[in-house]
Amino acid sequence: MESPSAFAYRGCTPQQGLLLTASLLNLWSLPTTAQPTIESVLPNAAKGKEVLLLVNNLPGDLGGYIWYKGEIIDSNLQIVSYEIITKTITHGPAYSHRETMYPNGSLLFQKVTLQDTGYYTLQAIEKMYQKPVRKPALQASNATVTEHKEAVVLTCLSNDTGISIRWLFKNQILSHKDRKKLSQGNSILTIDPVRREDAGGYQCEVFNPINSSKSDPFRLDVQYDPTLPSPGLSDGDIVDIMVGTLIGVVLIAALVCFLCIRETRGTDS
Prior knowledge:
elongated, glycoprotein, Immunoglobulin-like, 1 helix, six-stranded antiparallel beta sheet, mainly beta, 2 domains
């Protein structure tokens, strides 16, 4: 996730050997005449040596830095982050125990390997993101609905700015597709129509590159008519079941008929 108020830079490792260089990926307006740069120290390092991606001229009013392995800002690709105020270093899923991050945002690779080739992205976080996001509120159009007949609208309410929103169902990130639709900005979740498998606990989570907070759980109760088809069965599935049942009946009848004819012939002989 990338915020328009965060500064992102790319450190590039070409695919030829272990040559490391650094280049600017993107830049928003900065309150300084000095332009941020990333340069590679010992760019021609051999396998097993050290390579430093040195960061220069970053603004002095930042809250922290995050390095990612790859060309996009993705939490699954996070190598390491540094929070300036608390001087806290946090390792991410892409950390290989060979990277060292310095307070100025520079990243040191130790014992480089061919697997280190690729692109690296630096995200510099403004101080505004150092403030913890406040707990959001979840509002529902109805707490009890009837399956196949009604819809439910869930709204995530937050007074924070510069945040993103995601939805959780039974403590798992909600897959929003088909009947589940999100508004622009993800603040409103609509489920139409509701099915019985939609019953359970919902939460919305607001987050920025540094902090996150979840709403209190909301439980949706779904009433259902036992005469209706089982949940998850489409019209095509129901037709397939009926056809399969009919074929089974025909085969059984044919088998009974065959046995009767065989028995009759045996009696006549």
